[in-house]
Amino acid sequence: MIRVLIVDDDPLLRAGLKLMLGGAPDIRVVGEAGDGTGVTGLIERLAPDVVLMDIRMPNTDGLTATETVRRRPGAPEIIILTTFDADEHVLRALRAGAAGFVLKDTPPAEIVESVRRVAGGQPVLSPAVTKRLITRVAASGHDQRKTKAVNRLAALNEREREIAVAVGEGKSNAEISATLYLSVPTVKTHVSRILTKLDLNNRVQIALLVHDAGLLHE
């Protein structure tokens, strides 16, 4: 059973999400909140696997809450709820470790599937959406981010760097395997090592770091 916490300031949206998720036999909504205040306490008490988090809320917004939650060991996965598909706040949430985002007008079946995917350790961003997101957002503080990204990626060996760039290009493990003449299990092992070395949560963060370092070519 996948345990879900809903955090959104719109009670009608919360009710709709509870209704659609409650209809899934493998998902249980264990709680809800109207803003990010006290989310950490709710997580400790309710132990959700996935948090659906709105960005724009009164008091503590979803961005601040996401950053706080993802810094904690054993944190649940977070899916950002938004009305924008290229919002700079969404990008910041992804950098903080959110597993992806869904638009609030996404069809119910897709939201349910997104929860399942994230609970299974998969980000809910297609490669195309990832590339569009990181290229459309204004590059404020780009130079500083580039320096930090280059320094962090220096911890990788040559093979890990190749695979990190391939992840940034949106390639699947199978595609990386074919390109670099490696087995899929070997690629998975390298990706796991990259995440550990760079202290990252998921492939989306690898893609963002590679982008910041200027290693992607249009």
What are its keywords?
single chain; 218 residues; alpha/beta; Rossmann fold; Arc Repressor Mutant, subunit A; 2 domains; 5-stranded parallel beta sheet; 5 strands; 13% strand; globular
Provide the β-strand percentage band: 5-15%
Which architecture of the largest domain per CATH? 3-Layer(aba) Sandwich
Order of helices and strands: EHEHEHEHEHHHHHHH
What characteristic shape results from the CA principal axes? globular
Count of alpha and pi helical runs: 11
Strand order of the biggest β-sheet: 2-1-3-4-5
Q: Structural class given helices, strands, pairing?
A: alpha/beta
Average pLDDT, all residues: 87
Mind telling me the CATH class of the largest domain?
A: Alpha Beta
Q: What is the alpha-carbon Rg in Å?
A: 17 Å
What percentage of residues falls in helices of 4 or more residues? 40-55%
Number of DSSP strands? 5
Any low-confidence stretches, pLDDT <50, length ≥5?
none
